[in-house]
Design goal:
Radius of gyration: 21 Å
Oligomer: single chain
Distance between the termini: 22 Å
Protein name: DUF4219 domain-containing protein
Number of helices: 7
Organism: Paxillus rubicundulus Ve08.2h10
Strand order of the largest sheet: 1-2
Pfam families: Retrotran_gag_2
Amino acid sequence: MPAGSPHTLKPPIADCSHSPTASTPCSLWSYLDKNMDDKDEVHFMLQKSIDPSKYNQLNKLQPKLMTSNYSTWSMTVYHTLETVELHVYLTDNFPQPTDHKQEFHKQAIHWAKVNNFILSILTASVTEEVMTQLAHYETACQIWDKARWLYTGTTVMDWTLTIASLINTKHKDGEDIAAHIAKMKGYHHNIILMNCDIDDNLFTCFL
């Protein structure tokens, strides 16, 4: 089938099978071995309790999550946390260490501190309306999964409406050509934000 065929246009899958959190599972212990050194009390990028203050800008992420922009919000939050190697806390593949041996005690404490730090980032990046549905969860992973469960459906609907607009919007006699192209590029940009880009040649056919 030629690349860009209309048959290749598929909306986001509701279970987010190709979302960042559905990537190949990571071994907890391999991450700890690589990033945790009891001598320096290192846990990823946070070496001391005061270190989260270096990342205050993460509490100002935009756009805030609403009922209609989950796709854009989730990509922004995930990739931002990825830059400081804290994105693994968004998946249940990286739970809090529960081994009671002394050598793992500090790891559990540091995990809890970083989890609370990420909780503060997530809660600061959602609207008050959304927060009422998420406030009772205690881990970053729980909030991340619940937000996906609540709002993925709106992403599918947004995709459907945007594709319909892209297909059905035609240039009208007397309409400024530049304005029409800008409108169509706006639809295309929204599709890209949903992580569902289409072939450039196919997009040209809609102009």
